[in-house]
Amino acid sequence: MAVMQAAFDPLYGEAWTRSQVENALLLGGCRTLLIDQHGAEPAESAPAAGFALLRATLDEEELLLFAIAPRWRRRGLGARLLARALASAAEAGITRMLLEMRRGNEAEHLYRAAGFEPIGLRPNYYRTAKGDRLDAITFERRLD
Ligand SMILES: CC(C)(COP(=O)(O)OP(=O)(O)OC[C@H]1O[C@@H](n2cnc3c(N)ncnc32)[C@H](O)[C@@H]1OP(=O)(O)O)[C@@H](O)C(=O)NCCC(=O)NCCS
């Protein structure tokens, strides 16, 4: 939750509350991955530098949330965490990973470098705190 609060710009309203995360984790198929500032899995109760929240349905998995705390960015941690998410998904028999991103998010560089490709568009899907509308782009990464 510390990374969640630091990582998401309030303009876009993308951060989830603790109870939203807890409820998601109570549903079947949801999992989280954590990474520390050295690129390893943090020891229990040690601080995380980043996290991913994913939800699997049959052989598809959706990357619901993905973030690295601002102070640890541009060191390859995001790329490493994403690679770990993809590898563990493939191991679990997932055949495709999906994610939805607002148009213009810098994360697109990272997603494309990891092999994600755009497959869909929802025009004006998001609304910012200032009232502007932004498209949502769906990306897919095949794992089979
Ligand atoms: C997107 C995010 C996870 C990237 O984390 P990161 O640890 O900085 O990513 P990496 O250091 O692994 O970056 C890998 C590559 O992605 C690209 N990239 C990452 N951030 C970028 C940025 N702000 N602008 C341009 N390219 C960027 C670069 O190509 C980078 O490689 P380089 O540093 O060698 O140029 C992080 O910026 C973040 O948490 N953003 C806010 C939350 C968010 O929007 N999450 C995604 C939507 S849910």
Structure overview:
With 144 residues, this protein is an alpha+beta fold. The chain has one domain (2-142): 3-Layer(aba) Sandwich (Aminopeptidase), CATH 3.40.630. 26% of the residues lie in helices and 35% in strands. The protein has four helices and six strands; from the N terminus they run H-H-E-E-E-H-E-H-E-E. The protein has helices at residues 2-7, 18-26, 77-91, 107-113, and strands spanning 30-35, 50-57, 60-68, 96-102, 117-127, 133-142. The chain has a six-stranded mixed beta sheet, with helices on both faces. The longest helix is centred in the middle third of the chain and has 15 residues, at 77-91. The radius of gyration is 15 Å and the shape is globular. The N and C termini lie far apart (33 Å). The mean pLDDT is 96. Bound molecules: coenzyme A. Coenzyme A binds at residues 7-8, 65-68, 73-79, 101, 105-107, 109-110, 113.
List the helices and strands and how they pair.
Elements: H1 2-7, H2 18-26, E1 30-35, E2 50-57, E3 60-68, H3 77-91, E4 96-102, H4 107-113, E5 117-127, E6 133-142
Parallel strand pairs: 3-4
Antiparallel strand pairs: 1-2, 2-3, 4-6, 5-6
The structure holds coenzyme A.
Which features would summarize this protein structure in a list?
144 residues, alpha+beta, Aminopeptidase, 6-stranded mixed β-sheet, 4 helices, 26% helix, globular, binds coenzyme A
Distance between the termini: 33 Å
Main sheet overview: 6 strands, mixed
CATH class: Alpha Beta
Low-pLDDT runs of 5+ residues are none
Structural class: alpha+beta
Gross morphology: globular
How would you state the average pLDDT, rounded?
A: 96
Give the number of domains: 1
Q: Any guess at the CATH architecture?
A: 3-Layer(aba) Sandwich
Please identify the oligomeric state.
Answer: single chain
Q: Report the CATH superfamily.
A: Gcn5-related N-acetyltransferase (GNAT)
DSSP summary, beta strand count = 6
Determine the number of helices (DSSP H or I, runs of at least 4 residues): 4
Helix content: 25-40%
Strand order of the largest sheet: 1-2-3-4-6-5
Order of helices and strands: HHEEEHEHEE
Small molecules held by this entry? coenzyme A
Strand content: 35-45%
Reported by name, the CATH topology is: Aminopeptidase
The radius of gyration computed from the alpha-carbon positions, rounded to a whole number of angstroms, is 15 Å
